[in-house]
Amino acid sequence: MVNYSQFLNMIPEAGLVLMLIVVFFADFATSKSTVRRWFNPFVCVLMALQTVLCLFVNEPVNAFGGMYVTTTAVNVMKVILTAGTLIVLIQSRQWITDSSVNGQNGSREGEFYMLVVSTLLGMYVMMSAGHFLLFYLGLEMASIPMACLVALDKYRKGSAEGAAKYILTATFSSGIMLYGISFIYGVCGTLYFGDVSTIVTGGLNRMLTIMGLVFFFSGLGFKISLVPFHFWTADTYQGAPTTVTGYLSVISKGAAAFTLCTILMKVFAAYVEHWQMLLYIVIVLSITVANLFAVRQKELKRFMAYSSISQAGYIMLAVIGNDQSAVAALMYYVLVYVVANLVVFTVIAAVEERSGGRTDMAAYDGFYRTNPRLSFLMTLALFSLAGIPPFAGMFSKFFVFMAAASDGSFGAYFVVFVALVNTVVSLYYYLLIVKAMFIKGTDNPMPTFRSDLNTRLALALCTAGIALFGICSCVYQWLYAAA
Questions:
Q1: Bridging pattern class, strands 68-69 and 62-63
Q2: b/e 255-268 (16+ beta carbons within 10 angstroms → b)
Q3: For 451, phi and psi rounded to 5 degrees?
Q4: What is the full DSSP assignment across 284-335?
Q5: Which of 169, 261, 359, 407 keeps 20 to 30 A from 240, CA to CA?
Q6: d(CA 381, CA 147)
Q7: Is the pTM of this model over 0.90?
Q8: What are the backbone dihedrals phi and psi of residue 20, each rounded to the nearest 5 degrees, phi first?
């Protein structure tokens, strides 16, 4: 008989479920425009409370016979992702309340918030899973509402196309992953992470286990946008609303990368030489191919899509280390990546809103002359993504390189060398945007405009993170202790 009191151990998930219910009834009950003005601040306050809840609920617990398992690292990762979601909700107000998106009654605003909370709930479950079945349910809980978010703007032609490509590739990747999980179950007779780890250590049916590992890795490689599982990324990023693209590029990617890291290290520890070789190949391809394609892009959202593929390679670089420092480096990289990438997408959204939907790089020609503050913040974020000191992105790359090199093998050193060379390439294409803003001239630059309060708040929070996360050593020490 199920002991339902075990749900009390799932406090972060329970908080999101409660938030989902509250947002649903608030959306149902508020119809007047005078009341709807407070809808976004209300949801942001709820998400801020959820962040605080995750911050203080940091004790490792398990429930339902080990199907649900949390560690201190999982709880810290939930804090990072929830804080990132809060920033997305803050900067989304200008877009989601636009009548061209919602119609005259703003009816899609509540749907947007509920879908975002639903995807975050799926990510929580996915990261806290101690069983492949619960992991798969969490993955689907995060993926299906995400497709709805991509297609939310029905007045945008590319939105439906991007959602179709996302859901089709998600379906195929889920099937491949289930195929791999079936191999693992066939070998072990169980899907509990702890039991699978013990059984595969014995070396039983080694070839079948390796096949299951490869298929499982391929399924999650889609979620993280690793090459060669990245083909959906550019079209989906370009077609989705810019706010959704920012959410998809950082929050979803961070949750999937952390989950893959955890499963590889804990479940498949006996096959470390096999999945490390798999990571060597995928990381080199992801960083190199994405950088080469990014150089050729003129559409900024496609540009950031290939940038995110490259960044995914850097995130997974930490996993090669296979120790505590690897987990800490991954979490730190995701934290810095969240704040830097959201600055870029917040600026893109602000410019898109005031330029009739333009997201091409030419729209930023001479941008510094008319909007110097946004140009400066955009430059800081791009420099952080490129890893230029003294911004936090330099330290995140340093810790990732150190974690990978700690493996001590020739393969690890080679992958780190390739990543270092590609850092120079990435600096070049990030500087293309800086060149457009500061150097390129045009007769019709973007007019001067004042951002709304929510946009300024989101930019202030993210810029503070870029500046402080690199110099406040307590941040990395907190993550290392949690790992």
A1: antiparallel
A2: bbbbbbbbbbbebb
A3: -70, 155
A4: HHHHHHHHHHHHT--BHHHHHHHHHHHHHHHHHHGGGG-SHHHHHHHHHHHH
A5: 261
A6: 27
A7: yes
A8: -60, -45
Asked whether the bond before 390 is cis by omega within 30 degrees of 0, the reply is yes
Q: Which of 255, 182, 168 is nearest to 215 (CA)?
A: 182
Residue 291: what residue type? N
| 8 Å CB contact between 227 and 305 | no
CB-facing half-sphere around the CA of 40: CA atoms within 13 A: 23
Phi, psi of 288, rounded to the nearest 5 degrees: -75, -50
Of 188, 420, 206, the residue nearest 313 (C-alpha): 420
3-class DSSP state of 261: helix
Q: How far apart are alpha carbons 252 and 220 in whole angstroms?
A: 11
Helix axes of 39-56 and 72-91: crossing angle, nearest 10 degrees: 170
pLDDT, tens only, 62-71: 888 888 888 8
Burial of 33 (C-beta count, 10 Å sphere; 0-12/13-18/19+): exposed
CA distances from 31 to 109, 181, 301 (A): 11, 46, 34
What's the CA gap between 411 and 280, in Å, rounded? 7
CB 147 within 8 A of CB 232: no
The SS3 assignment for 60 reads coil
How is residue 157 written in tokens?
A: 């032609």
The two structure tokens encoding residue 195? 């039991």
Phi and psi of 68, rounded to 5°?
Answer: -110, 120
Per DSSP, the residues of 362-386 read GGGTTHHHH-HHHHHHHHHHHHHHH
Neighbour count for residue 409 (Cβ, 10 Å): 14
Give the pair of three-digit tokens for residue 193. 């992470």
pLDDT digits (tens, 9 = 90+) for 367-412: 888 888 999 999 999 999 888 888 888 888 999 999 888 877 888 8
Burial of 152 (0-12, 13-18, 19+ CB in 10 A): buried
**356 CB burial (10 A radius; 0-12, 13-18, 19+):** exposed
* DSSP letters for 262-277: HHHHHTSGGGHHHHHH
Per-residue tokens: 247: 């959410």
Number of H helices, E strands in the chain: 23, 2
Q: How many CB atoms lie within 10 A of CB 424?
A: 11
Residues in the chain: 483
Dihedral over Cα of 428, 354, 82, 309: its sign = negative
Distance of CA 30 to the CA centre of its chain: 31
Residue 77 phi, psi dihedral angles, 5° rounding: -65, -35
Report how far Cα 410 is from the mean position of its chain's Cα atoms.
30
pLDDT digits (tens, 9 = 90+) for 1-23: 556 667 777 888 989 999 999 98
